[in-house]
Amino acid sequence: MTSSDAPPEAATTGDVPQLIEAIADGVGVVEASGEILWMNNRLAAQPPEVMARFSDACRDQMRDGMAVPRRAHTRRFSVASRRFEVIISPFVGGPGATLRAVGVLCETTARERLADRVRAIDTAGASLLALDARILNPLNVAERLKLLEGRITQALKSIFGSDHFELRLLNRESGQLELVIGHGIEPLRIGTNLFARPEGNGLTGVVASSGESILTPDISNEPRYMTGLTNAKSSLVVALKLDERVVGTLNLESTSASKFDDEDRLLLELYGRYTAMALTILDMLIVERYTTNQRVSGSLREEMAVPVHAVRNGLSRLRLRLGDDADAASILTEIERSLESVEERVRNCTSGPRSVLGLDRLDRERGKDTVISGRRVLVADDEAPIRETIQSVLGDAGALVEGFGSGVAAIEAIQKAAAASRPFELVLSDVRIPDRNGYEIFRAAKDASPATAVILMTGFGYDPNHSIVRSSQEGLSCFLFKPFQATQLVEEVRKALSPETDAGLPAG
Prior knowledge:
Helix content: 40-55%
Largest sheet: 6 strands, antiparallel
Oligomer: single chain
Distance between the termini: 79 Å
């Protein structure tokens, strides 16, 4: 039967034919053998394989049972990359009529594709949050971030087909959008920052300030776009939110126009919530570790003060009782010196990032170090005690060391030395330093002289700008967690300055 014929025993008056033509992606009447007795034009326009699978679905359903009147049954099938479902109902004829069925064909490709992508988002998001203690405890902060970075990168590539993205977190105090993870997009120039403001901060600043995503099919028509990816044609920027509070942004860019659509926007917003939760949990763990160390250190100093005071009082009483006994006085003096050494060691250990440990175990009698001697080294740390200690240790080993307490001054010195064709051979910098962060100092050193080795230092693993992970991607020699041993400092400096040493390996 052709599609122009009326369905058996059906009324064809008024608007009924037009209504039938508007039903889903096709409708037809099928007998028990699978023959299509009637179909509308939409079904007739489908490829032969689709019509064959449609009739098979109706036939199989009639074979399996159509006993309940007016009950609809659903069957699904796929043809190539297209997905369909058929809603099948008994066709009620007159008395003695043969068994027939009415099938309504609906293409579900887009709906099921979206469902598949949502499930992929849920799976990828769950992997970000499934970082339990067994996984995290053995890892330092940089390794934890690296683990998250790998999972985020894989999800953005597999679900959104994007290799070019930036993830930034919002510093609530300054309003700055600090880069955490970036792939394929050139970093901003040193000293240039993005803020959560609607003007002059690109689409990222607009999204961070408004909380509303921006989909740009053609960036040539978007005056607020700030150059990121070379030859970019389209972009998608979403806000990372926790309880509707913006905590950062996620920006995808592509060299293809109209790469992203509204479905991508919806899914990236969903994935952004998982990302925001994962990074916030990680930051909470880092801060907890930092504050716990400070609290334990304070308690240790307080607890040590009482027995140390008692020992000193006991030594004073013994001196009075022993009088002029020279041998006893010598022993008491030795005990006092040991007690002072204990106090100094406790002070150094509990002062945390402000100290270098084990200075008394460093063999300074051996003279200049053959690897370190004569090498130009810059130390950047706003904590004068640790900066001066590092300068002293490396200076004793023969290095030519300059120290700076601010990031701007350090970068100026790096650039000036390179311009004079006397670049620093090694730069050691804390990740938290006034005016700049560790990554900016790392980038300045590498831009001035790619051969310059860089070591970053951080207190208890605290890295608010995520400088360590970003620098590790680009050739960081190593990172040191304060407080570190003086011998470890010398050893890592030797490795960084030795041409045969592989770069990018972290230190303890």
